[in-house]
User: Fold these one by one.
Assistant:
Number 1:
Amino acid sequence: MTPAQVPDRSLGVFETLLVSDGAVQALAAHVERMTGSTERLYGLRPPADLPDQIRALAGGLGDGEHRMRVDARPDGAELRLEFATTALAPRPALWRLTPMTLAGGYGSDKLADRGPLANSAGGGPVALLVDGAGSEAEVLEAAWANVWLLDGI
């Protein structure tokens, strides 16, 4: 990873949640990950009512599937939260993943600075974020998708 590719942690962290017919999927896990990241990176916790804020916003989205993004950015001694929602558009059933190794890069934190991953949004191969190298490498996510491993199917 070249110095220009080192992500800017000061831009904050985010979570992207799936909202299906007004219900948020895996809300507790998303809030737990965001809290862990903000504590580790900034020494700050999101407000205790964050799950309630998310549920209230999700409840007003109506039927169908939506994406909700929650950004948390350090602002002095507090976290500034921003929420954005969009209806989910169909994605192609299959796409090609191109591994992108970011040794010492993102780790488990969903950093708002997506750096080189931003180029994957416009078509073509989708970056598969890999943290580390060799037998210690961990697959984290794709540029705009989760990665699921189905074992024993």
Note: The longest strand covers residues 65-75.
Number 2:
Amino acid sequence: DALKAQAVAARSYTIYYRYNPVSRDWYDIGNDTYYQAYGGTAKEFGTTTAAVNATAGQVLMQGGSVLQAMYAATEDLSREAHDGQGMAQWGAADKAAAGWDYTSILAHYYPGSSLGTLGGSR
């Protein structure tokens, strides 16, 4: 469920920047760690792909728009990079291990948001 929460957050983050680009020239997001890092499909695991497929099309919404779903590896990094806003991936893993489902994890880290689907709401 932590990976499902991460899949929804990452999808929301990406879509947010697609429609609110950092640069009008060549890219939607920046090329430093503030904008996350992606090692490519060679760095992915089957569990990641399964989580992405299980949450296909799901995004976080707030105020009728896709949420800029900030996230970081740890609570400390989240505080440092995003003033504590957004999901801590290790915290999400701890919550999943304690039995939280991905919707509860997302609700904890993104209060006031709702789960929607691309092209509609859920």
Note: The mean pLDDT is 85.
Number 3:
Amino acid sequence: SLLVGAYGAQKWWEDGFTGEFRTSNEGWFGSDTAYGGQDKLGHAFFSYVGTRLMTRAFEAVGNEPAGAVSLGAWSTLGIMTAVEVLDGYSRNYKFSSEDAIMNVVGAMAGYVLERNPALDRLFDFRLLYEPSPEVKQAGNYDMAGDYSGQTYLLLAKASGVPALREHPVLRYFELAVGYGTRGYESAPGQERSRHAYFGISLNLSEVLRQTAYRGATARSPIQRTSEFFFEFIQVPGTTALADHSF
């Protein structure tokens, strides 16, 4: 969320403001929207990640876990909402109620998983990013703005199911569903498509837990950091997904 705020401050400084608050009806996931809804999932994802990161930050400075979660969610939602309101006054952007709603959805998802360890062990919300052909050709890598390179995944982890947690093979796998769009940033007239994904993925945290960290009496800072990272980022090459375009 702090990164989003910093990025927003830069674009407003460059673009300037107007004295008028403007709004825009951007739609949701329709084929005729600006990015096929991929930008909406981006708002939910960054609010989700921001809530969880801010929760850790508030815990680190001495807050109790329950209080830290509330502070993390409200702080993230406040930053993201402020960004959206400033968009309404900026010269080249407008306030989007759809973006504001998805900020709430993401922050609430982060809050729910932080408050429910059993659900957190079972579900992850991750971003799989591979630079799109357009970005590779231009050589201007921008993960936040490269919608065609993003795939958002919701995963159910076998390691979060008591009956599967001790299975020697299944414990390493996850069921994945996802969404992505392709071609929406291309020149007018280029083919655009939306994609639903279904398949399996590899739980890298569980792999490391049973290999590099096996036998450890306590979770080291490196282990905690790596597991936290893999809650949000899906490493390319670790998924097998069926693709349904529409």
Note: The CA atoms of residues 175 and 200 lie 5 Å apart.
